[in-house]
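Quick start: read one record
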Amino acid sequence: MGYLAEEYVVGEMLQIYQEVPDDGVLQVLDQLVQLAATSLKNPDILKVWDNAAMNALLAQGRTIAKIDGRLNTMKDLYPKLTSQIDKMLAKTNLIFGDFKRFMDLRKSTSDRQVLCHGDMWTPNVLWQRNVNGSVDLAAILDWQLLNVGSPTEDLVYFLHSALSPETYPKKKNDYLHYYYDNLKQSVTNLPMPWSNLENFIQQYEVSYTYCIMVLMPWYTTAKEQLLGTYINNPSFVDAFDEKIKFMTNETIRCINKWF
């Protein structure tokens, strides 16, 4: 007989076109540090973890036909981004053309593998909002994609969805520095997954490239679903479109730098 444990948690969800306040970002980073540190301190727990379900999901969704198809559909929805999308299409075979090579690329972004949430975007986080506008982390949801992998992917999923196009280029490296320093303090004399902070930021940007090339086209086709009742609110629609534009340009920046 199996058992299912459930807990009712009250909280506010922030979508990808809304920004998570600074205090909220740091609270989530603290949780991701704890997840990685626990794995690094207790490597035996990774030996019994079965990644088969996650690997099967990746094999199904990371095919050239699907990724190219979604990027081409995105050109129809966002024609002003055609030149940038064409630059992504020129790299899909290099990144996704061979599944083993793609999985090796993922693994190369972290010298030590850790437990990862697997779907760490902001709609999977609940917040309690305080009267002064600050937030407290209430819960991180949807752990069914928990897997052994590179922590850079969880960081990409969270930071790209939590930060506005204005904040991301200004604060991204600060948040990565915060994560790196706190993880290093948490594992004391144990080896880190990266040789230094600069290498960590590089591997984050590599992960950003292949994660966002998959996520972003889906966002554009799911626009009405993601906006929900805000679909008729011009300010939210504009925020969504600006986020897509920024993600496109940031992906191209990372491609030019690392691929």
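The longest helix spans residues 197-221.
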